[in-house]
Automatic annotation (TrEMBL):
Keywords per UniProt: Glycosidase, Hydrolase
GO CC, alphabetical: cytosol
Organism expressing this protein natively: Pelagibaculum spongiae
Sequence ranges assigned to domain Inosine/uridine-preferring nucleoside hydrolase in this UniProt record: 6-305
Name of the protein: Nucleoside hydrolase
Gene3D superfamilies: Ribonucleoside hydrolase-like (3.90.245.10)
PANTHER family: INOSINE-URIDINE PREFERRING NUCLEOSIDE HYDROLASE, URIDINE NUCLEOSIDASE
SUPFAM superfamilies: Nucleoside hydrolase (SSF53590)
Gene Ontology molecular functions: purine nucleosidase activity
Keyword Ribonucleoprotein belongs to the record: no
Amino acid sequence: MATKFIIDTDPGIDDALAIACAFADPQIEVLALTSVFGNASVTQTTENALRILEVLEQDVPVYPGAHRPLTMPAKDFPAFVHGENGLGNIPQPKAKRQPEPISAAQYIVNAANQYPGEITIVALGPLTNLALAVALDPTVAQKIKRVVSMGGNLHVPGNVSAAAEANIYCDPDSADQVYNAGWPVSVVGLDVTHQVTTTIEYFEQLEKKQPIVGKFLHQITRFYMDFYQDCYQIDGCHIHDSSAIACATHPEWFGMESGQLRVVCDGECKGKLLLHKDAGYIHKFNPWLEKPEVDVAVTVDVKAISNWLDTIF
């Protein structure tokens, strides 16, 4: 039986591939997309989500979400990574459908009540919508099967600073709240996603196999590939978000470290993840005390993900 997914997303070039992977995987039933700021404004990411669904010929709803971090001021969006429109500056026709009239956070609460214990939320951007859902209904964490969060870095450097990965850096307060809300959480960050890469040849082959979807992904990914060549001098790109989709359906491909997880919320190390594996012996005022255990991915079966990407389309 397919697992019910809500994909919380800020499309985003790599988000587009991840969304396509989710719809292509028979183990996944996508209930909805919820949009959030991140790779572009939430107005743009909502439009992009609708456009991606049209390309995929999928009719699931899109619920618009947070336009800014929970407590911090809004910042500029990374147009140099994803383009001004979030989709590699490839002109897109305006989506024919409209987003839903309720917020992403309210939808998450509603869906959790409708399908208690059945839904996996895969969060591909900042975690603001999930934090807002918990604020609306603190019991929502007990009704979600699992949260898979693409973000963070434990034993490797960040990608927006020496300390932090982009999604967590965008809203560290939300991340800290979500990781400690009490639902089962798996964090898929740079420790593993920087090991998973693909090349332009993959998208060329995908276009041959799936002319409409493959062409769309091939076109928008060129901008992303150019960024990786300029910034990292690699001929290809890391597929962060698709790795999170893979973890949600195939957790056996990932090696985890488990413990109490906190997020640095200010200062030069803002966005840094800190994992403590045994909070039992430390001082009673320590902020890790009585926090739930979170799984953080530190190893990955790269070949398994590569094979998955080759076979689902």
